[in-house]
Amino acid sequence: MASAVSIPSSSQPEPPMVHASNIFSIKELAESKGDSSLIPSTYHSISQLHHDDDDDDAEYLASSIPVIDFSHLTSHHPQTHTKAVQLLGKACAEWGVFMLTNHGIPEKLVEKLMEKSGEFHDLPIEEKKEFGDNKSPLEPIRHGTSFCPQVEKVHYWRDYLKANTFPQFNFPHKPPGYRDVAYEYSQKIRGLARKLLEGISESLGLASNSIIESTEFDSGHQVFVVNMYPPCPQPQLALGLPPHSDIGLLTLLTQNGVGGLQVKHHGKWVNVNPLSNSITVILADQLEVLSNGRYEGVLHRAILNNEETRISVVLVNGPALDKEIGPLAELLEKEKPLFKSMKYQDYFQFQQRTRLDDKNTLYEIRLN
Ligand SMILES: O=C(O)CCC(=O)C(=O)O
Ligand SMILES: [Fe+2]
Fold it and tell me: Would you identify the family this protein belongs to, as annotated (predicted)?
């Protein structure tokens, strides 16, 4: 009798099964595998090449990602400022992602940040264990792998450090010097996010302090995420992070010169190839809620390569944790709310404990 179970041929060994909740880090697993060219089957995200959008159109789209000049936004010259606000509004409405140039963060600081971020992930496991295991998302510092291994069917080829850096600054004291660099960077990013939120309020036809006030941004929550994606022997099968939108208002991202971020635009995955010394800004869920859907949290994902370690430093800038966020009252004078209001802390904790999948967290609060 024919058996329903297929027996793998000897030339195609079965890939190993690894549950991410049983490993401390994918970096460690990747390094321990030596020359093995098979990744665990539990990391198989996609069965077809995910570079299927590598056509001329996607390339053209990649070069069309908007660029916002921060110095124009902060200009005291009214015409320059107004034009920059218009471009910002267009970037938010049409793309949900843009590259920020002339932002004033010194290149040297970003270089140092990347160097120290690499050193952190290179620390021996024993040194990182104190931040490990599955802690509450509100724990000040967390180290882990994948996204939320306990609830995932498929795991992701990344390790992370997450630290809540505002209103209280929490950060590891090792490697030496990392904490000081991270503090300076986190403060500078908050300043940029605040100015961008003012510009975004104006672009919605509102007073510039409208979003800042309604989110109590000056005591807003900030998470400092340091993603590390080791080279993956089968990059076409796995993902660093699956398609998702971010939780906060604005995510500001820098990377170590190795690409991997893609955004979904008009149904296509588009590579984000950041201009030198720019910061990538990603619109997140809380802005979609506040703007009552005018600006959407953009879907994005992280793809892998088999040559170089990729590091991205991602600062999630959100409302104050105890603030209830719903569509802005000024926008509801002429339209119905598209989202329920929810305390940011509840939204944050829910997202961090749920399978990362498209915009599933936002759909929980969407009104029909
Ligand atoms: O590493 C990247 O480019 C994306 C990271 C990301 O989406 C995240 O940390 O939420
Ligand atoms: Fe993200």
Answer: Belongs to the iron/ascorbate-dependent oxidoreductase family.
Query: Which of 312, 313, 316 is the pocket-test mutation for ligand 1 (most atoms within 8 Å of CB)?
Result: 312
Rg (C-alpha) for the chain, rounded Å, is 21
Domain of residue 50: give its range: 43-364
Cα distances (angstroms) measured from residue 85 to each of 3, 293, 309 = 66, 19, 36
Q: Is residue 23 a part of any domain in this protein?
A: no
Which ligand lies nearest the alpha carbon of 302? 1
ipTM of the complex model: 0.99
Q: Is any atom of ligand 1 closer than 6 Å to the C-beta of 227?
A: yes
| pTM of structure | 0.94
What digits encode the pLDDT tens for the residues 159-203? Answer: 999 999 999 999 999 999 999 999 999 999 999 999 999 999 999
Q: Is residue 94 included in any domain, yes or no?
A: yes
- How many domains does the structure of the chain reveal? 1
Domain of residue 79, CATH code? 2.60.120.330
